[in-house]
Write a structure and sequence with these properties.
The complex is a heterodimer of chains A (439) and B (83).
Chain A (H helix, E strand, L loop, with lengths): L2 E8 L3 H12 L4 E5 L17 H12 L3 E4 L2 E7 L2 E6 L2 E12 L3 E3 L12 E2 L1 H9 L8 E7 L1 H12 L3 E7 L18 H8 L8 E4 L1 E8 L3 E8 L2 E6 L2 E6 L1 E3 L2 H6 L3 E2 L2 E2 L12 E3 L8 H16 L3 H24 L15 E3 L4 E2 H4 L5 H8 L11 H9 L4 H5 L10 H4 L7 H8 L3 H6 L1
Parallel strand pairs in A: 1-2, 1-6, 2-3, 6-19, 8-15, 9-10, 9-15, 10-11
Antiparallel strand pairs in A: 4-5, 5-6, 7-16, 12-13, 13-14, 17-18, 20-21
Helix pairs in contact in A: 1-2, 1-7, 3-4, 4-5, 7-8
Chain B lengths: L6 E6 L2 E6 L4 H8 L4 E2 L5 E2 L12 E4 L2 E5 L10 E3 L2
The chains are: A alpha/beta (439), B mainly beta (83).
Chain lengths: 439, 83
């Protein structure tokens, strides 16, 4: 079954919801496709108490006529004006007049010895588990990495009864830091706790500090931390570790949108270099939930032809772009983080390729061809971003060479095309994953 | 935890686990202390990103392999196995 919309929005986080609601309010037929079980994205993931903005926008989405394709994963753009998506074993083509991409961001992970053990996960990753039903009361957690997400996660886990043993921020800039938390739209009460003293979390807050090893026998038990040459072990049940956010560029790259310095290039109305395709939210720069909502509204209004309204909001957006740059400066990675992995540390978790093997190569492309790093089911989404920092490799060619399927898909889904060479190409590109999935 | 009106029971590697309604399969596996998968060199793995990007949480659900357990909710009687 295929569907057609005036405006299709990919991603149901704050930016996508705002875009869909704004476009639908303008009288357009709107589809909202998202791969999670419920709308809200990562920041408004199922929670006991949503912030007011989330309740407001999710309420608007409920009250507006938007066709929701929740749980559907877009894996191809087989022709202009067409996305192809999969849900379980079903495959569907989604046709659009205009497309708004709001695919959000993921955490950047950096390898260190022991980081592949269970219970060592992303900061947002652990938060997602807790929001997804993992009881955390009474558990000891170390939160590490960089960016305002660390404090937001620590605050949320504390509110759910976790004992935060330490918060380790790699940046040296404590005084600049709390401002960024506001961007994540956390409840005001938690914010106050952060802004007027991280001590209220009952956690030790270290700057210029990062994990150098995750330790344990059969089970993860403790993390070794380093700060200014001093090393010590912190016992914990979970290590939540993420080094800020990077945008999910695969879909805009597949569509051919121009990408510069790691983000999609857009004009003031958020239109990309490709006709009828615009972007909103973290794809245009990591700016947090308020900016994402504003960008969603701009993109939705502009796509619906409400240019004047969109231009008015675009002026508001311009004033807020300073935050994006400030956040980028604050979260710049310390070069000493490049030396934390040992030769035996895995960089590519899909194919189990070590740092020692990857570092022998001169480029991401060559490392992929010789070692298979980045060629497992995540298609380099995790290790490619790490390699970019660790080895200074230019990943832009990686984005420009994105090819379908951008997520592993069933062979039955790939088979809906009439391009005869398509199946074999796709299987070769995505390694053996597709074959496994077809079993 | 005991089964109540707002909880359900599923099987993780053949062992019954009771979780609150709305719990993801990945969270249920963490509760059960079960790895989601074994890596190509045999390492036990658990969830990393929690948002369907990293594929570390892929697991076998009701006989279907490679399901991203962080994006799937538990249902009554579901059979989940480390893959």
């Amino acid at each position: 079954m295929n569907q057609r919309f005036d405006i299709l929005v990919a991603g149901a986080g704050p930016a996508g919801i705002a875009a869909a609601v704004s476009a639908a309010d303008a009288g357009k037929s709107v589809g909202l496709v998202d791969d999670n079980p419920a709308p809200g994205g990562q920041i408004w993931r199922a929670a006991t108490a949503h912030p007011a903005a989330a309740r407001n926008w999710l309420g608007k989405l409920d009250a507006t006529h938007v066709t929701r394709l929740q749980g559907w994963r877009v894996f191809d753009a087989p022709a202009p004006g067409l996305l192809r998506a999969e849900y379980k074993s079903e495959c569907r083509d989604l046709a659009y007049g205009k497309l708004i991409l709001a695919t959000g961001a993921r955490e950047r992970f950096l390898p260190f010895p022991g980081w592949t053990q269970p219970n060592v996960m992303g900061a947002g990753g652990l938060d997602a588990m807790v929001r997804g039903g993992l009881p955390i009361a009474g558990k000891r957690v170390v939160v590490a990495g960089t960016g305002p997400l660390l404090l937001a996660v620590a605050a949320h886990l504390t509110s759910r009864g976790a004992k935060i043993a330490a918060i380790c921020e790699q940046a040296p800039l404590r005084r600049f830091f709390p401002f960024g938390v506001r961007l994540l739209g956390e409840p005001a009460k938690l914010l106050q706790g952060i802004e007027y003293g991280i001590a209220t979390l009952g956690a030790k807050f270290y700057t210029s500090c990062w994990p150098i090893a995750a330790n344990g026998g059969e089970k993860f038990e403790a993390v070794t931390l380093e700060r200014k040459g001093k090393r010590w072990e912190e016992r914990c049940d979970y290590l939540a570790c993420g080094f800020h956010l990077v945008p999910n560029l695969e879909l805009p790259a597949l569509l051919g949108c121009r990408i510069e310095e790691g983000f999609v290039t857009v004009d003031s109305l958020l239109r990309t270099s490709i006709a009828d395709v615009s972007c909103a939210g973290e794809l245009t720069g990591i700016g947090g939930v308020e900016l994402a909502l504003l960008e969603g509204e701009i993109a939705g209004l502009a796509a619906a032809g409400k240019t004047k309204d969109a231009e008015r909001l675009a002026r508001k957006r311009k004033q807020r772009l300073g935050f994006v740059q400030a956040l980028r400066t604050v979260t710049a990675l310390d070069p000493r983080l490049k030396t934390v992995a040992s030769d035996a540390t895995l960089v590519c978790r899909c194919e189990d390729i070590s740092f020692g093997r990857v570092r022998k190569h001169i480029s991401w492309r060559e490392a992929k061809l010789h070692t298979r790093c980045g060629m497992g089911p995540c298609q380099g989404r995790i290790c490619g971003v790490a390699a970019e920092f660790l080895f200074g490799w230019d990943l832009d060619p990686f984005h420009f060479s994105v090819r379908p399927p951008i997520f592993p898909a069933l062979v039955s889904s790939l088979g809906v095309t009439d391009r005869l060479t398509y199946e074999s190409d796709s299987l070769a590109l995505a390694g053996n994953t597709n074959q496994e999935e077809s079993e | 935890m005991p089964e109540t009106a707002d909880s359900l029971t599923l099987a993780v590697n053949g062992v019954a686990v009771t979780v609150k309604n709305g719990t993801t399969v990945a969270a249920a596996m963490l509760i059960a202390g079960a790895p989601t998968r074994r890596s190509v060199t045999g390492e036990p793995r658990g969830p990393l990103c929690g948002m369907g990007i990293c594929f570390e949480c892929r697991t076998t659900i009701d006989g279907v392999p490679h399901q991203r357990s962080c994006q799937i909710l538990c249902t009554v009687g579901m059979d989940v196995r480390t893959s």
